[in-house]
């Protein structure tokens, strides 16, 4: 199974620069989680307009937290933070949306599965600067979650290209990356490295 690559925006770039990076990464990335908490709603709309005009499909866009923004722009996927809106509540009011939920434990995964989220985002798996001082959750619980539930699980947090194969072996649907890509001198080139690692994992698993 080919792993999906998600890229999470880092809320540190101006609109034009971020839109340019997303457009350049588009050939290598399956989904973009737009997580720009410091930008106003108007700024986020402007960003997404630029991204869509550049040719990025709405189907590849996932809006973090802001259900209203997704609805206004006709984007069908949202990512709800662990302490954000309840999956069932959003599903009840907006049944057309596809809903992901961020989780940090097996118990949270089991709870979210019971209300039928479309996917889960679990982390952080490895040490990462954006979670400095917090211990990484590691692979053991990730494996337990994948084995215990029937919905797609994506791993996030400190993931580097060399980690892709072990994540594939565990059985995740894909991986999400933020800092390693956006901190790189050429984000699109770094995204391509992850894409190629995902492709190699498919070949390895077929052998």
The name CATH uses for the topology is TIM Barrel
Strand content: 15-25%
CATH superfamily: Aldolase class I
**Share of helical residues:** 40-55%
CATH class descriptor: Alpha Beta
Structural classification: alpha/beta
How many beta-strand segments? 8
Overall number of domains:
1
Task: Describe the global form.
Answer: globular
Please compute the radius of gyration using only Cα atoms.
Answer: 16 Å
Q: Strand order of the main beta sheet, please?
A: 1-2-3-4-5-6-7-8
List low-confidence stretches: none
What is the end-to-end distance? Answer: 13 Å
Give the ordered list of helices and strands: EHEHEHEHEHEHEHEHH
Helix tally? 9
Average pLDDT confidence is 93
Instruction: Please tell me the CATH architecture by its name.
Output: Alpha-Beta Barrel
- Give the biggest sheet: 8 strands, parallel, barrel
Domain Thiamine phosphate synthase/TenI: 5-181
Pathway: Cofactor biosynthesis; thiamine diphosphate biosynthesis
Protein name: Thiamine phosphate synthase/TenI domain-containing protein
Keywords: Thiamine biosynthesis
Q: What is the compact description of this entry?
A:
The protein has nine helices and eight strands. The chain has 207 residues and is α/β, with parallel strands linked by helices.
SSE diagram, text form:
Elements lengths: L3 E5 L6 H11 L5 E4 L6 H13 L7 E4 L2 H7 L3 E4 L6 H7 L4 E6 L2 H9 L4 E5 L14 H11 L3 E5 L7 H7 L3 E4 L1 H4 L4 H20 L1
Parallel strand pairs: 1-2, 1-8, 2-3, 3-4, 4-5, 5-6, 6-7, 7-8
